[in-house]
Amino acid sequence: MATDRDSVLEAAVGVLSRRPTAHLDEIARAAGISRATLHRVFPGREALIREVGALGLRRFATALDTARIEEGDAEAALRRLVDAVVPDAALCAFLAGENQLYEHEEINDLWEFQDARVRALFLRGQQEGVFRVELSAGWLSEAFFDLVAGIGWAVQEGRLAPRESAFSLAELFLGGALRRDPQRDPRRSDTP
Questions:
Q1: Distance CA 188, CA 192 (A)
Q2: pLDDT digits (tens, 9 = 90+) for 6-50
């Protein structure tokens, strides 16, 4: 019987996004295979981690393409990105928690390219007057990705319903990122 590589990767995501130090036995059990079979599919933990990371980055790239973040109003583009990326929030949680991935040049380069696209969205939004200019585009990108990862963890742990996750992410993020009317800025001492 052939083992479906994608099913093994999905099972690994489910385990590793919650417990990055999980043993291969746990991952094999979650995939419904033996450890020996897991080793035939992936020669070791590092290979499995790298494949899960590459899967996460491929899915994130697909979400960026699907959302067409370079097109239209920046807020609308961000909302499209939220809708496109939330189904793979668990992969984002894995990417956020697995620092060893970024020691691999190919994965690091892929991440940098995708992060540059998200930063460009925020920079464009700042130039359009949509996003706050006192927060750097780099920080907005980092915060967005971290919130996506948080959604992944919250859904996995049952603290957030999957159907509420896109709305929750968009509203929380945009509540802090959208540019405010300076007359109503709570930091101003002359605010009515």
A1: 9
A2: 889 989 988 988 888 889 999 999 999 999 999 998 988 888 988
Name which of 33, 32, 81 is nearest 60 in CA terms: 81
- How far is Cα 146 from Cα 169, in angstroms, rounded to an integer? 11
Residues in the chain, how many? 192
Render pLDDT for 89-118 as a digit per residue (tens, 0 to 9): 988 888 887 777 777 888 888 889 999 999
CA–CA gap between residue 157 and residue 15 (Å, rounded): 12
Please state the φ and ψ torsions of residue 2, each to the nearest 5 degrees.
-80, 140
Tens-digit pLDDT profile for residues 139-175: 999 999 999 999 999 998 899 999 999 999 999 998 8
Burial (CB count within 10 angstroms: exposed 0-12, middle 13-18, buried 19+), residue 79: middle
| C-alpha–C-alpha distance, residues 43 and 9, integer Å | 13
**Whole-model pTM above 0.70?**
yes
